[in-house]
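INFO  loader      accepted 1 record
INFO  loader      residues=227
INFO  predictor   begin
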Amino acid sequence: MSNPVLSLKDVTIYQENKVILSQINLEVNHGEFLYIIGKTGTGKSSFMKTLYADLPLTQGEGHIVEFDLATLEEKDIPYLRRKIGIVFQDFKLLPDRTVNDNMIFVLKATGWTDAAKMQDKIDEVLDKVGMRGFASKMPHQLSGGEQQRVAIARALLNDPELILADEPTGNLDPQTSAEVLDVLKNINALGKTIIMATHDYALLMKFPSKTLKCEDGAIFEVVQRSV
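INFO  predictor   done
INFO  writer      dumping C-alpha cells
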C-alpha cells in the first residue's frame, strides 16, 4: 500500500504564538479530493499555509509528499513546493508578461532548460484547463475565471503529487466558480490529489466530496448535509 500524500498526527497550528487549530489527526491518500471549510478566521488559511511551509510546524508530526514538515529546513522549502501545486484566491499571475511567458518563468525557475520541452508542457497544461488559445494574452485581457484557469495550469507544470487550492473561487461569481471547480474536479479525475479551502457551501452541494470543517480551534470531518 502506498504512503498517504499527507499525514498529520497530533498537530497544533500556531500563528504568532497563538493556537489556531489543535490536535489535528488526518491522512489524505493519493487521488482524494478534500474540502476544508469554515468561517473566516477559523483557521483554513493557516492550515493550508502549514502544508506548504509558509507557517512552520512546531508541534506534532506532519508528512506531505514525503517531506517531514517538523524538520523541514528553509533551504528545502522550494523543493517541497515543486511537488505541490498551489492555487491562490488572487491568481498571482505576473501582470507584465503573457500567459505563455508566465508559464516559462515558472519552468525556468524550477530548472527547465529545453525550450521545446517547455513549450510542449505549457501546451499540455493549458489544454487541460481549456486555455490553449489564450497563450498570447496578457493577464489583464482575461476574465477572473480565465485567470484562475491559467493559475491552475501553472500549478500543474511540474506534475505535482498534490494541489492545494486556497479559496480559488473567492473572487469569482457563482457561475464562474462552478466552472473553475469543474476544472479542478476533472484534474482530480485524472489522478491528482486536491485539497481545497473554501467558504462557498453552494459548491459543496453541487460537487460533493469528503469535507473537513474548521471550528472552535478544531478540525473535523462533516457529512455533506450538515455543513
